[in-house]
Amino acid sequence: MRILISSCLLGEDVKYDGSNNSIAYGNSYTFNQKETFMDILCENEIYSFCPEVSGGLGIPRVPCEITSTTKPFIVKNKDGEDVTINFLVGARNALELCQTENISVALLKANSPSCGNNSIYDGTFSSTLIEGQGLTAKLLSENGIKIFNEKEILELKKWIKNQ
Ligand code: SF4
Asked: How far is the CA of 56 from the centre of ligand 1 (A)?
């Protein structure tokens, strides 16, 4: 199976601060989660993708949050600059890749304004989470792509098995 995975979860230094969210080396995962993740990597065709970098933002970059969660979406960085276009381009590029390569499932980083599948920060840069989706996760799920986050690795493995 072909799986799109947030590049930062694979250990690529693409986060806003130039670091990553590696599952393999992270200390907030159980042995079972890490082992399952490694199985998934070995048994499937992996497409690493970072929507924010694909959308033209640099590394490092000023952190961004969604300030309007309904259309028209607005994403701003902590300096108040509007970066919505970068997020929309990144989301469109992710969808294009999935459609071109027949990718039907994605493992995306939770809480990100691009990749978050259940919750995002509320736009006040105060570390407050609200229910919602990042712009890439939203566009992919609206187009039938199943999304899991890094805390749902075991669920992803089960989902793959049932296909
Ligand atoms: Fe990771 Fe997604 Fe943020 Fe890129 S946009 S650093 S892949 S969470």
From this structure: 13
| Bridging pattern class, strands 64-68 and 74-77 | antiparallel
The domain locations on the chain are: 2-161
Express each pLDDT in 9-36 by its tens digit: 999 999 999 999 999 999 999 999 999 9
- Ligand 1 center–CA 161 separation, angstroms: 26
Is 75's C-beta closer than 6 angstroms to any atom of ligand 1? Answer: no
Please state whether the predicted TM-score (pTM) of the whole model is above 0.90.
yes
What gap in Å lies between CA 110 and CA 134, rounded to an integer?
9
Please say whether the beta carbons of 133 and 111 come within 8 A. no
Contact 146, 105 (CB under 8 A): yes
Shortest CA distance to 146 belongs to which of 103, 110, 112, 100? 103
